[in-house]
Task: structure prediction
Amino acid sequence: MSNSIYDKGFVIKDSLFYYNGNKITINESIDHFVKVIGKPDRIITDSEKVHFDKSWKWKNRYEAFENYEHKIIVSAAKQNNDYVDKQFNTIGDAVKELGQFDEYQNEKDELEIRQFYVWDNLGISIWVEKTRVVQVNITLLPPAIFRGFLFEDEDPEFKASFPKKLYSGEFTYNEKTVNLKSLKNLEWENFIKELDITDSKFDPPGDSKGWSREIRASDDLYAIFNRYKTTNETSPKIDVISSINIFSYGKKNN
Result:
């Protein structure tokens, strides 16, 4: 990593990820990030209760789960394709029609604790779970806009995880560099053109192709470039990159 373009800001080269010339890896210890980036200005702790529904299995025939209305939804196992999904009021009603189930799982509620290490002056925050890095967030749009329009229903801890300042360094992808200190480069069309990610292979899945771009460097290294665009004709026209999220596909939602 002796070339100067790799020594400034964030870099994705092939399937590797760097910050200021230092190699970093998603899902590694936050301690390494702190050594590379420096001590964070704040650490925000957020907790969320996660509920796991009850489930049942009839070997090679049916599978069932309890939905949010506490109804029992039965569907066919792979070996029983002729069965049509059916809803029952209780598992007892299902047993009366289908016979006794073979397996039952009842996973309890768990308290999921996540932390955000925040570097206010750098415009960076890192989502951490159990001391491991889950996602690196690069903020490019003033948090007040996020809070006012995008995250009205989010909890206070999550809102507080946004840095107080914006990232104004460089971002490089396969030797194409964008200086994000330039307001012109923050404009969406300019940004994706400069980083050379206009091709359809960078389209996100689903129906939101116009609202983000994705770099799938490997299963362990994904980057999403999020767009913010005003649609109200009475509002000032804004069409910019709002943030960059870097994560491991297999770890992001674990």
